């Protein structure tokens, strides 16, 4: 592994607990080391290491780490005695490092655990400071520090919960909008087939003049049923349409994927296309087209310059749509990691309606892959 790869691995494994542990060690040792002639005493160094280790434990066992910290609040002042630096002159029996560690752990408890646990931990921490105070009049200061850490953690937790609820609501709204859009598109497909059925039923008596009367009666029943269905579909169109666009416009299908890729190539993108599917049901073809369209748009926004491969194949009654893009070679147009990915929500909704499967995830090479498996459960093909 090269030096760049080593640095990347170190950055990936570094957590806030590691950084806080280093800071607590430095705060426990450095002020004393510069403040006193004998400040770099081995006892102080050991106490600093112990403080840092307690913080590191929080990454795996937060409550255990907090409990150890409470023990240190009771015990450590007896080990380093009067060897601390400026803290002792301020009348504060703990090092700045141990104080920071206690505050950080209480913040994490308030951020991650239930309210009853938070209140218990805060009260126990405050009580644990009393035996080391010279005067009961000093008790409010540790209490204020405890309350401040807990308040900060609670505030951050509530804000994150509010943001998560907002994201969930946005996803629900996007899914509802996508379902409405799917319904409009499928309405167009069904209306087309019903219109063709009505026309063929109307033409039966002209194309086949020698049919028996009972057969013609049955055809007339089918014709009326088809016309009634088409009338109801047109009424549904009034509800589903936004008033933008032509309600009779044909919807794209699998045959339009090649033109779609060609238009995307005109932007300068490197796109490889593999089409290995025959005629498919119109609803499946429409969803496959929309999935490829959204995946190509996403690759252009998030991985500009990266090569893209599009594969649409049929195997054992399943249409598999796969769009893969390599890592970006230019700065992304949209690099906000916290922004909800509504396009993926729409893809998932389309696949869910057809009873298929969707995976959308980063690739080991730094790109992204979208794979949709759409069952071909009969129906008219297009």
Automatic annotation (TrEMBL):
GO terms for molecular function: ATP binding; phosphorelay sensor kinase activity; protein dimerization activity. It catalyses: ATP + protein L-histidine = ADP + protein N-phospho-L-histidine. InterPro entries: HATPase_C_sf, HATPase_dom, Sensor_HK_TwoCompSys, Sig_transdc_His_kin_sub3_dim/P. Its EC number is 2.7.13.3. Residues 287-377 form the Histidine kinase/HSP90-like ATPase domain. The chain crosses the membrane at residues 16-34, 40-57, 62-80, 92-109, 116-133, 139-156. Gene3D superfamilies: 1.20.5.1930, Histidine kinase-like ATPase, C-terminal domain (3.30.565.10). It holds the Pfam family HisKA_3. Keywords: ATP-binding, Kinase, Membrane, Nucleotide-binding, Phosphoprotein, Transferase, Transmembrane, Transmembrane helix, Two-component regulatory system. Residues 178-243 form the Signal transduction histidine kinase subgroup 3 dimerisation and phosphoacceptor domain. GO terms for cellular component: membrane. The keyword Ion transport does not apply. The keyword Electron transport does not apply. This is histidine kinase.
